[in-house]
Amino acid sequence: MATVRTADTRPAIDAALARRLVDTQFPQWAGVPLEVVDPAGSDHVIYRLGQDLSVRLPCHAGAMGQATKEAEWLPRLAPHLPLAVPTPVQVGVPAFGYPWRWAVSRWLDGEVATAEALADSSAAAVELAGFLTALQQFAPEGLFEEARDDLIVQPLAERDRATRAAIAKIGSTFDAAAMTELWDAAMNAPGWNRSPVWCHGDFHTGNLLTTDGRLSAVIDFGGLAIGDPACDLTIAFTLMSAQSRAVFRACLDVDDATWLRGRGWALATGLNAYTSYAAVNPRVAAATTRQINEALIG
To answer: How far, in Å, CA of 241 to CA of 118, rounded?
Structure first.
């Protein structure tokens, strides 16, 4: 069955399409059971393939490069990181009207991390700081000279217009004056003046897995890039309380300007997700409300 495009140009993805893509491109898994994973986030439709694999199909153009990026970099990064990351197995190609490359990866067991379980955990804060430290220290020879567009963290200032528009749109829901004050301060904070480092690029609670109540894996590296590490401080405001944030910040030794830019990243991404999904997704509404309010607290 060929897929069709919806009004917003997103491909329609269902089990029949996933089955056809897998069976024709990777016949070694033909007939292996496929089970949709729900919820799966906003970037992919995910199916579990048997017990050991996952199939990830980007559902909008912003995620279309993730399969090839993860296949290129995660095998190189994984040995250096203290938490598990996805293990790419195959990259599928467009077919049957589906327009983008897609991924087959090893299944990672675990539950999505929650602030309810880990907000006050100093141990989790230390583990996450250790993960970011290890990620930032990975620097293969010649990488920083390549300056590939898909591996560059975009400046926070590029979110200025959209963030101010979001503040104006939902200012009655939150403290518009406080959001504007924080955003102005983040825009005026000194920039990163050291060597660029690796950043996860989408480091929030939904991209962490836990096993038996402990952090076990970091997933969704579509935003993996090199630049200002302030973007990865978002995790401090999606997962942590003020007390565990202080532990996290001390472990990373984050200066005032970088911390302020990190709060700006948390505000900007929280507002973007809230305005895009909160009206139709109560889970996103609750998570982004917390993120915005914690960013305002600092």
So the answer is: 9
Same-fold call for 15-106 versus 111-297: no
* Residues 6 or more apart whose Cβ sits within 8 Å of residue 177: none
**The CATH number of 111-297 is which of 1.10.760.10, 3.90.1200.10, 3.40.1010.20, 3.20.20.10?**
3.90.1200.10
pLDDT, tens only, 147-179: 577 788 999 999 999 999 999 999 889 999 999
User: What does the longest C-alpha to C-alpha distance in the chain come to?
Assistant: 58
- Where are the domains positioned within the chain? 15-106, 111-297
Q: What is the dihedral of CA 184, 159, 259, 65, to 10 degrees?
A: 180
Q: Which two tokens stand for residue 288?
A: 């982004």
Count of Cβ atoms closer than 10 Å to residue 165 Cβ: 12
Residue 48 to residues 36, 124, 230: CA-CA distances in angstroms? 6, 28, 33
Q: Residue 196 CB: number of other CB atoms within 10 A?
A: 19
Sequence-separated contacts (24+) of 77-81 with Cβ below 8 Å: 77/135, 77/138, 77/198, 80/134, 80/135, 80/137, 80/138, 81/131, 81/134, 81/135, 81/218
Mention every residue, 6+ apart, whose C-beta is less than 8 A from residue 10: 59, 60
Q: Which CATH architecture does the domain made up of 15-106 adopt? A: 2-Layer Sandwich (3.30)
> What's the CA dihedral at 55, 60, 62, 64 to 10 degrees?
40
In this structure, what are the phi and psi dihedrals at residue 220, rounded to the nearest 5 degrees?
A: 60, 75
Percent share of the chain, pLDDT over 90: 86
Model confidence, pTM: 0.92
**Whether 235 contacts 128, CB under 8 Å:** yes
